[in-house]
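Support reply, case 0932

Customer input (verbatim):
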Amino acid sequence: MKDQLISRKLLRIILFLLAFIWFFGIISYCFDFNSLTAFYPFQKQIYSTVCHQNINKSFTCNGIPFFVCARCTGIYSGVLIAALIILFLKKPLNIKTYLLLLFSLPMLTDVILVNIGVYNYNRLLSAFTGLLFGSVVFLYILEAIENLLFRNHTE
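Our regenerated output:
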Protein backbone atom coordinates (compact mmCIF):
# COMPACT_ATOMS: atom_id res chain seq x y z
CA MET A 1 0.00 0.00 0.00
CA LYS A 2 2.81 2.41 0.89
CA ASP A 3 4.64 1.52 -2.33
CA GLN A 4 1.48 2.33 -4.24
CA LEU A 5 1.25 5.79 -2.61
CA ILE A 6 4.88 6.49 -3.48
CA SER A 7 4.33 5.31 -7.07
CA ARG A 8 1.18 7.43 -7.37
CA LYS A 9 3.07 10.49 -6.08
CA LEU A 10 5.95 9.85 -8.47
CA LEU A 11 3.55 9.56 -11.41
CA ARG A 12 1.92 12.86 -10.43
CA ILE A 13 5.30 14.60 -10.11
CA ILE A 14 6.39 13.32 -13.53
CA LEU A 15 3.13 14.46 -15.15
CA PHE A 16 3.46 17.88 -13.49
CA LEU A 17 7.02 18.26 -14.78
CA LEU A 18 5.95 17.27 -18.29
CA ALA A 19 3.05 19.75 -18.18
CA PHE A 20 5.40 22.45 -16.90
CA ILE A 21 7.94 21.84 -19.67
CA TRP A 22 5.20 21.85 -22.32
CA PHE A 23 3.63 25.05 -20.98
CA PHE A 24 7.01 26.75 -20.56
CA GLY A 25 7.68 26.05 -24.23
CA ILE A 26 4.51 27.95 -25.09
CA ILE A 27 5.44 31.04 -23.09
CA SER A 28 9.24 30.82 -23.37
CA TYR A 29 9.51 33.93 -25.52
CA CYS A 30 8.07 36.03 -22.70
CA PHE A 31 11.50 35.70 -21.17
CA ASP A 32 14.50 37.34 -22.72
CA PHE A 33 16.49 34.23 -23.53
CA ASN A 34 18.55 35.07 -26.59
CA SER A 35 19.72 31.48 -26.65
CA LEU A 36 16.16 30.30 -27.45
CA THR A 37 16.04 32.12 -30.78
CA ALA A 38 17.70 29.22 -32.57
CA PHE A 39 14.95 26.88 -31.35
CA TYR A 40 12.06 29.03 -32.60
CA PRO A 41 11.38 27.12 -35.87
CA PHE A 42 11.68 23.78 -34.07
CA GLN A 43 9.29 24.84 -31.28
CA LYS A 44 6.81 26.29 -33.77
CA GLN A 45 6.81 23.01 -35.69
CA ILE A 46 6.27 20.91 -32.55
CA TYR A 47 3.31 22.99 -31.38
CA SER A 48 1.83 23.08 -34.89
CA THR A 49 0.89 19.43 -34.40
CA VAL A 50 -1.57 20.40 -31.63
CA CYS A 51 -2.84 23.83 -32.72
CA HIS A 52 -3.72 25.79 -35.84
CA GLN A 53 -1.44 28.62 -34.61
CA ASN A 54 -3.58 31.45 -35.97
CA ILE A 55 -1.70 34.55 -34.79
CA ASN A 56 -4.96 36.53 -34.71
CA LYS A 57 -6.22 34.11 -32.06
CA SER A 58 -3.01 33.93 -30.03
CA PHE A 59 -1.68 35.86 -27.09
CA THR A 60 1.59 37.66 -27.74
CA CYS A 61 4.57 38.44 -25.58
CA ASN A 62 7.50 40.66 -26.57
CA GLY A 63 5.80 41.01 -29.94
CA ILE A 64 5.95 37.27 -30.60
CA PRO A 65 2.74 35.21 -30.72
CA PHE A 66 2.53 32.17 -28.49
CA PHE A 67 3.03 28.86 -30.27
CA VAL A 68 -0.64 27.97 -29.66
CA CYS A 69 -3.90 29.92 -29.80
CA ALA A 70 -5.59 31.42 -26.75
CA ARG A 71 -7.91 28.41 -26.37
CA CYS A 72 -5.00 25.96 -26.41
CA THR A 73 -3.08 28.23 -24.02
CA GLY A 74 -6.07 27.95 -21.70
CA ILE A 75 -6.21 24.18 -22.10
CA TYR A 76 -2.53 23.76 -21.25
CA SER A 77 -2.84 26.26 -18.40
CA GLY A 78 -5.67 24.14 -17.01
CA VAL A 79 -3.56 21.01 -17.31
CA LEU A 80 -0.65 22.69 -15.51
CA ILE A 81 -2.82 24.08 -12.70
CA ALA A 82 -4.59 20.75 -12.19
CA ALA A 83 -1.25 18.92 -12.24
CA LEU A 84 0.08 21.28 -9.58
CA ILE A 85 -2.98 20.99 -7.33
CA ILE A 86 -3.08 17.21 -7.60
CA LEU A 87 0.46 17.01 -6.18
CA PHE A 88 -0.98 17.95 -2.80
CA LEU A 89 -3.80 15.38 -2.79
CA LYS A 90 -3.13 11.90 -1.50
CA LYS A 91 -6.46 10.28 -2.31
CA PRO A 92 -7.17 8.56 -5.60
CA LEU A 93 -9.33 10.56 -7.98
CA ASN A 94 -12.96 9.87 -8.72
CA ILE A 95 -13.93 12.06 -11.69
CA LYS A 96 -17.33 11.30 -13.16
CA THR A 97 -17.84 11.38 -16.91
CA TYR A 98 -20.63 13.94 -16.54
CA LEU A 99 -18.06 16.41 -15.11
CA LEU A 100 -15.96 15.99 -18.24
CA LEU A 101 -19.01 16.69 -20.36
CA LEU A 102 -20.10 19.60 -18.17
CA PHE A 103 -16.70 21.30 -18.33
CA SER A 104 -16.55 20.71 -22.09
CA LEU A 105 -19.81 22.55 -22.72
CA PRO A 106 -18.52 26.13 -22.24
CA MET A 107 -15.74 25.56 -24.77
CA LEU A 108 -18.01 23.80 -27.22
CA THR A 109 -20.62 26.56 -26.88
CA ASP A 110 -17.96 29.24 -27.45
CA VAL A 111 -16.67 27.51 -30.58
CA ILE A 112 -20.16 27.09 -32.02
CA LEU A 113 -21.29 30.65 -31.26
CA VAL A 114 -18.14 32.15 -32.78
CA ASN A 115 -18.39 29.97 -35.89
CA ILE A 116 -22.03 30.80 -36.56
CA GLY A 117 -21.31 34.50 -36.04
CA VAL A 118 -23.24 35.22 -32.83
CA TYR A 119 -20.17 37.06 -31.51
CA ASN A 120 -16.53 37.58 -32.44
CA TYR A 121 -13.66 35.49 -31.16
CA ASN A 122 -12.45 36.64 -27.74
CA ARG A 123 -9.03 35.50 -26.55
CA LEU A 124 -9.82 35.76 -22.84
CA LEU A 125 -13.11 33.88 -23.14
CA SER A 126 -11.46 31.19 -25.25
CA ALA A 127 -8.60 30.87 -22.77
CA PHE A 128 -11.03 30.60 -19.85
CA THR A 129 -13.19 27.93 -21.48
CA GLY A 130 -10.00 26.09 -22.47
CA LEU A 131 -8.75 26.28 -18.88
CA LEU A 132 -11.93 24.65 -17.59
CA PHE A 133 -11.72 21.92 -20.19
CA GLY A 134 -7.97 21.29 -19.80
CA SER A 135 -8.11 20.94 -16.04
CA VAL A 136 -10.91 18.36 -16.06
CA VAL A 137 -9.49 16.43 -19.01
CA PHE A 138 -6.17 16.14 -17.18
CA LEU A 139 -7.87 14.87 -14.02
CA TYR A 140 -9.97 12.43 -16.04
CA ILE A 141 -6.93 11.04 -17.87
CA LEU A 142 -4.88 10.91 -14.66
CA GLU A 143 -7.63 8.91 -12.96
CA ALA A 144 -7.70 6.46 -15.86
CA ILE A 145 -3.91 6.03 -15.72
CA GLU A 146 -3.91 5.58 -11.95
CA ASN A 147 -6.76 3.07 -12.13
CA LEU A 148 -4.87 1.13 -14.77
CA LEU A 149 -1.56 1.15 -12.91
CA PHE A 150 -2.63 0.99 -9.29
CA ARG A 151 -5.89 -0.92 -9.26
CA ASN A 152 -5.97 -3.48 -6.47
CA HIS A 153 -5.94 -6.97 -7.94
CA THR A 154 -7.58 -8.64 -4.95
CA GLU A 155 -10.49 -10.07 -6.91
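We compared this against your earlier run and they match. Two observations from our side: Helices lie at 2-27, 40-48, 70-86, 97-115, 123-150. The two ends are 16 Å apart (CA to CA). Please reopen the case if you see a mismatch on your end.
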